Amino acid sequence: MPEIIEGVVIKGDGIGPEIMNVTTEILSIFPDIAFSWEEKYAGLEYFEKYNELVPLETLEAIRAKRVALKGPFTTYSGKGPRSANWVIRRELDLYVCMRPIVSHSKGINILLIRENTEDLYGAIEWEIHDVAHALKIASVKGCRRIAAYAFKKAQNSQRKKVTIAHKANNLKITEGMFLDIAQSVGAAFKNIHIEDQLIDSLTTDLIIQPGNYDVILTTNTFGDILSSLGAGLLGGQALVPSASINDDIVLVEGAHGSAPDLKGENIANPTGLILASAILLEELGANSEAQMLRSAVEHVYANNIMTADCGGQASTTEFAEEIKKELRTLIQYA
């Protein structure tokens, strides 16, 4: 009998239901793991119907099951409610955001780890006399726990280097605290090389020589920007997976938006969410299944079967069917 894992599914906005449906179908192929999904709701579309961005029962379900697969949310710029992502991460204290930026064909294998609840993400803003202010937050606790997570993950993943990305030359207190604490935590990991780099020079180097980077540890805002830069190196925003984590919960998603203009067209790229499911499998200890899923995705791309955003002609469902075929073959010969 397969191991049954209970989890929460939040389909989200825009293309969310389409990419979620094919991803859960792909996960159902594994013979030794069976997911029992409970659907819950959140996001802008839900808010516009019920005037509630993230229902309490959604948060409670994630706390109880500790496993969640989430679609993208739509968020207006400069108006409207806060992002549902902001609510979920803050309410559940999902302090780790982990985003692998990987392309073996391009020699890129970066693990980006950013703090997920502090920095400008606290969204503490006000306006006085025509001047807008935003508060940047850094706490000893917040800096220490994300640094500890990053170095432990690097050690457990047999990675050799952690680069601390910062702007401590200018923001000497907040970014200075982050840098000092990260270096202090990292000093206990004797087998890991530590370097630090200013965020502006790092972005240039990352484009020119991405193969020089292994683990990048940074604050929230810088990490968000580096994630999108990394997606560009791979070939598109839809190719990067994301995991929001604390000591009890793992919530995974694609690191991209809801693309409302593509809703219902069956052309959205589900790669980010599929690869995020591999992170989920790995976090649950299903390492062989995680590797098979990643290999299946690599094989499909190697066969030049891609959705339109990557230059191909496959629909969402056609792409997913190819993943299923590859996965069944890998399972058969495992």
From TrEMBL:
The record's InterPro entries line, in alphabetical order, gives: IsoPropMal-DH-like_dom
Statement: the UniProt record of this protein carries the keyword Oxidoreductase: yes
Q: What is its EC number?
A: 1.1.1.41
Source domain of life: Bacteria
Q: Which residues form the Isopropylmalate dehydrogenase-like domain?
A: 4-323
Query: Biological process GO terms, please?
Result: isocitrate metabolic process; tricarboxylic acid cycle
What are the entry keywords? Oxidoreductase
MF terms from GO for this chain are: isocitrate dehydrogenase (NAD+) activity
What the record says about family reads:
Belongs to the isocitrate and isopropylmalate dehydrogenases family.
Q: What is this protein called?
A: Isocitrate dehydrogenase (NAD+)
Question: Could you tell me which species this protein originates from?
Answer: Fontibacillus solani
